[in-house]
Design brief:
Layout lengths: L3 E9 L15 H24 L6 E5 L1 H7 L2 H24 L4 H23 L5 H9 L3 E6 L12 H19 L5 E3 L9 H7 L4 E4 L1 H5 L13 E2 L5 E4 L2 H8 L18 H4 L2 H4 L31 H30 L4 E7 L10 H14 L4 E3 L2 H7 L30 H18 L5 H17 L2 H9 L3 H24 L4 H10 L27 E5 L10 H15 L3 E7 L7 E4 L2 E6 L9 H21 L6 E5 L4 H11 L3 E5 L3 H5 L5 H16 L2 E4 L2 H11 L6 E3 L6 H4 L18 E6 L8 H14 L3 E6 L5 H10 L6 E5 L3 H10 L2 E4 L8 H8 L4 E4 L2 H6 L7 E3 L4 H13 L1 H14 L5 H15 L13 H10 L2
Parallel strand pairs: 1-2, 1-8, 1-9, 2-3, 3-4, 4-5, 5-7, 10-11, 10-14, 11-13, 14-15, 15-16, 16-17, 18-19, 18-21, 19-20, 21-22, 22-23
Antiparallel strand pairs: 6-7, 12-13
Length: 947
């Protein structure tokens, strides 16, 4: 009686490496080696199990590009040529090794093995689809597909493009195997929220994820990884079991690294003298693997001993036993804890078995035989069979995840390959638009549209980004991406110009004859968006990483208030920013056009990496707006987080660039000390260099930027931050209800801001002792969140001030207003503060302020007139100023009243006028502010030249 199940999954995939223009290519050998070392040996194992009556189950994912190459007559002919050449080499090796009994035996083994593979190939006439289909018909294999060209789906921009990749895959799979694919292998196990909706719409019942993809789901899976869950759209998710994966996958901790197994990296293609091996390597003399490997791993060093077939077979049997024992323990424990028979999901790249791990097919053979003939309590099962056994699966929401390094797409988006995505995303937009435009195309137009779809799909293959990251065949990967995009662009231009070259189209079709059922209508919009209305107003594009309701610091409020003021002045403002929660991706906020872009959430030190993605998505969003007819007179960028997008769009749009530098990395950290700080500093330098004008919020910041970045003085403009008193909503008189922040009799010393080191809250806490000694009825309220919160809470406890210092965490605008009405004094003790909007808000609320005499705060407060100043990081000085306010309420009220009167300097109407004046200085003299529709063909030609 079984206790649980093992769902073994093999994902077979290779990029589309068909090159009819050349007789010998290194990349086509990937296919030849995989067929002779993995696919046929695995089929021979499966047929042997079937012949011997051993019941087995296995899920086999075959990517559409691999399936297309299996069924390509040219490639089948080349596979046979490769096989014949290998057999010829085997005969030569048998003869060459006659005097060495150890190597001679191995050479005979290779000759017999290759002869068996050759007979298999001849028996099926090179048709690998047929034996897989036969095994599926017998119920032993569950065959599933992957997405069309194996694109990394979380980085595909348009739903229509994902839909097209899925339709191409499902159509091809059903055509060859005569059955629908119930499941799918998401390329690189890449999942992003809402992808399940597209899977569900295309009839997919299940997919696979890496372990953390399910472990971090919400709510937490009650059965851990031992049962699938359902996404909100009803698609089942099976998670890779980390223990099972590590035992087989890892070359260090796993079985394949055992010293008795065959050494992959020692091949006669490199060992034999050049003249002997020359007929069997690349015609250009490039040494390559031949598949003839005579050594075992032996150990970690260079010394290698001869390979011993018996030792390897014995070790394979022991490893199969060990693997089963480990899985039995898992399911025994699981069946008691989850109340149903658990399933352990063990997915692997198929090419591991036989190609990388030579003994892999033998391992599977022994594994299935032991499970069947020993009537093991662990039994094999396919995902479809398991889903049909139970009907009560938990519904969970999955976050973005992948397999591979770090588990969150690091392999497919980094400095080696990030350049490909803006190009791909623009191409998606163009094809979607053109697919909608051509309702009744001619036969030739349809061929061109279909071929454009193929070229875009091939450019989207995740393999190219992987190879660039892996630094193996980088030049090939770059060329393949560029070649497909260039052919795509040519087809687009032909279609847009209504000038089709039939001979050129036929040549493109002949180079990439995959997806014969390709239908360009798959790219037609799934949902229609709204087209912006033409405007005669001047138009500014604001780039800012935060915008309400996302408020990390003062930047969000600044962009919001400035944008509203510009709208009132007759400007059309488009803000491109980050998505947050369930807020709409496109909406109108008080006359501001807000465009929020989707980027997966940053995690820890991955924030810098996340900024990469944010910039890519910003560029794509702006290009989509341009495709609807919008143009922008000015680009206005805020801080380093949008520098890459600002630079790219400056050249794409041909518009002047203004940047506002709200703070610098050098200032925040009192120098540049780490690699990350250096990278951020470089982006700040890049933004300043590319900007036509730079806005600083204080004279302090102007001096800092000029000195650190060697910026010419005439490039800078000082425009302060502002405050909108209406947003403070302070009633007449002081608020008496202080709960829950303080008791009625207590006076509040208030700090509001981000809890980061440069805000100087530590100085405020250490000053509390001196303040409380004179005013024991005081309560220090610290409102805000940030990385220093726990450290400063601990400092309060160490100083025995825990009952006198309250950390509120994040507070709403309403709570902020209540606190400002209640506070006796607002204190801002920063040692680095470019400006300090919160000080203005306190002044607008009529709250007396004490600030550090530094940065922009020094510009805002006039000591002894509108407030008091303390020396930065000076506990005694800060306590003295706070005590002065608390000791003389009448004087404090005078400070507050005069501060309110001085706020006209910081009125947003005035700041907007200064900003517009700056814009007008750099706008072209003949700018009429009329919307211009740029020529999309010429624009794409310019962009393509930059690839």
């Amino acid at each position: 009686m079984e206790s649980g199940y093992l769902a073994l999954v093999l994902h077979a995939h290779l990029p589309y490496t068909r090159h009819p223009e050349r007789k010998h290519t290194l990349e086509e050998r990937w296919l030849f080696e995989a067929i002779t070392e993995t696919y046929i040996p695995l089929l021979q194992v499966f047929q042997g199990l079937l012949r011997d009556g051993a019941d087995f189950r296995l899920t086999f994912s075959i990517s559409p590009t691999l399936l297309s190459m299996w069924t390509d007559d040219l490639l089948k002919e080349r596979v046979l040529r490769y096989l014949n050449q290998s057999i010829d080499l085997a005969e030569k090796e048998v003869d060459r090794t006659r005097k060495d009994p150890v190597f001679h035996r191995l050479a005979n083994y290779y000759r017999e093995r290759l002869g068996s593979i050759h007979r298999f190939w001849r028996h099926y006439n090179g048709d690998l689809v047929r034996p897989f289909r036969e095994l599926a018909d017998r119920g032993k294999l569950e065959l599933i597909t992957s997405a069309g060209t194996h694109p990394f789906l979380p980085f595909v921009k348009r739903e229509e493009s994902i839909h097209a990749q899925l339709r191409a895959a499902l159509t091809l799979h059903e055509h060859h195997f005569g059955r629908k694919s119930r499941g799918i292998w998401l390329p690189e196990c890449g999942y992003a929220p809402d992808l399940d909706r597209l899977l569900q719409e295309n009839g997919i019942d299940y997919f696979f994820t890496d372990s953390h993809g399910l472990a971090l789901a919400e709510p937490a899976p009650v059965f851990d990884l031992l049962s699938p869950v359902l996404t909100p759209k009803g698609t089942a998710v099976f998670a890779r079991d980390p223990a099972a994966s590590e035992q087989v996958w890892s070359s260090k901790e796993g079985y394949p690294g055992d010293y008795d197994y065959r050494e992959y990296y020692r091949d006669i293609g490199y060992d034999l003298d050049f003249e002997t091996i020359r007929p069997y390597i690349h015609p250009e003399g490039i040494r390559i693997n031949t598949g003839f490997k005579y050594y075992r791993i032996t150990g970690p060093g260079e010394h290698k001993e001869p390979y011993n077939l018996e030792w390897a077979r014995e070790k394979t049997a022991r490893h199969a036993d060990h693997f089963l024992w480990e899985r039995r323990c898992q399911v025994r424990e699981g069946v008691h804890s989850i109340g149903r028979k658990p399933v352990v999901t063990a997915p692997y790249d198929a090419e591991l078995y036989g190609h990388w791990w030579f003994e892999g097919p033998q391992f599977l053979d022994m594994l299935f035989r032991k499970m069947h003939f020993d009537q093991d309590e662990l039994q094999p099962i396919t995902p479809s069979e398991y889903l049909d056994r139970y009907g009560d699966y938990q519904v969970c929401r999955l976050a973005m995840s992948t397999w591979g390094r770090h588990g969150y797409a690091d392999v497919w988006l980094n400095g080696t390959n990030d350049w490909i995505y803006p190009v791909l995303h623009r191409s998606e937009e163009r094809l979607v638009a053109l697919a909608l435009r051509f309702d009744r195309p001619s036969s030739l137009e349809r061929r061109a549209l279909n071929q454009a779809g193929r070229e875009l799909m091939l450019a989207q293959a995740s393999d190219w980004a992987f190879i660039m990251d892996n630094k193996t065949m980088v030049e090939y990967a770059v060329k393949r991406t560029k070649h497909h995009i260039n052919r795509f662009e040519c087809l687009m231009e032909m279609l847009e110009a209504a000038s089709l070259d039939e001979e050129w189209i036929a040549q493109a079709e002949a180079l990439t004859p995959l997806f014969p059922q390709m239908d360009y209508r798959w790219y037609r919009p799934l949902t229609r968006g709204t087209v912006p209305v033409a405007s005669e107003c001047p138009r500014v594009l604001m780039l800012a990483w935060e915008f309400p309701p996302m408020m990390v610091g003062g930047l969000s409020r600044h962009v919001y208030d400035l944008s509203r003021a510009l709208v009132k002045k007759g400007w059309e403002v488009h803000v491109v920013t980050t998505e947050i929660g369930d807020d709409p991706h496109t909406e109108m906020v008080e006359g501001i056009h807000v465009h929020r872009v989707h980027v997966m959430k940053p995690c820890g030190d991955e924030f810098y990496h996340w900024v990469f993605q944010l910039n890519l998505m910003m560029v794509d969003t702006v290009h989509a707006l341009m495709d609807t007819g919008l143009s922008f007179d000015i680009i206005h960028a805020h801080d380093w987080l949008v520098s890459r997008a600002a630079k790219a769009l400056k050249y794409r749009l041909g518009s002047p660039l203004v940047s506002t530098i709200h703070a610098t990395e050098h200032g925040r950290n009192q120098g540049i000390h780490t690699d990350l700080q250096h990278r951020i500093h470089s982006l700040e330098q890049q933004l300043i260099d590319e900007s036509d004008r730079v806005i600083l919020c204080s004279t302090y910041m102007k001096r800092e930027v000029e000195q650190i970045f060697h910026m010419p003085s005439d490039k800078a403009e000082v425009l302060p931050n502002g405050v909108d008193p209406e947003l403070i909503q302070v009633a007449d008189g002081r608020e008496e209800n202080k709960e829950p922040f303080a008791m009625v009799h207590e006076r509040i010393v208030l700090f509001i801001g981000r809890l980061v080191r440069e805000k100087g809250v530590e100085t405020l806490i250490r000053s509390a002792e001196r303040v409380l000694s004179r005013h024991p009825d005081t309560k220090f309220v610290i409102a805000g969140k940030g990385p220093m919160k726990e450290e400063w809470e601990e400092l309060s406890r160490q100083l025995n001030l825990a009952d006198k210092v309250l950390f509120t965490g994040f507070i709403s605008d309403e709570a902020r207003n209540r606190l400002l009405r209640s506070a006796s004094v607002a204190v801002f003790p920063s040692w680095y503060e470019p400006f300090g909007i919160v000080a203005l808000e306190a002044m607008a609320a009529g709250t007396p302020v004490v600030v550090s005499d530094t940065g922009g705060l020094a510009d805002v407060v006039e000591h002894g007139y509108t407030g008091l100043k303390a020396y930065p990081q000076d506990v005694h000085s800060l306590a003295l100023q706070i005590n002065t306010i608390l000791s003389d309420p009448e004087q404090a009220a005078g400070f507050a009243q005069r501060a309110k009167e001085e706020l006209s300097r910081f009125d947003w109407n005035r700041i907007a006028n200064g900003t517009i004046s700056l814009y007008e200085k750099i706008l072209p003299r003949d700018c009429s502010y009329l919307m211009v529709t740029r020529n999309p063909v010429s624009r794409v030609r310019e962009e393509n030249a930059c690839i």
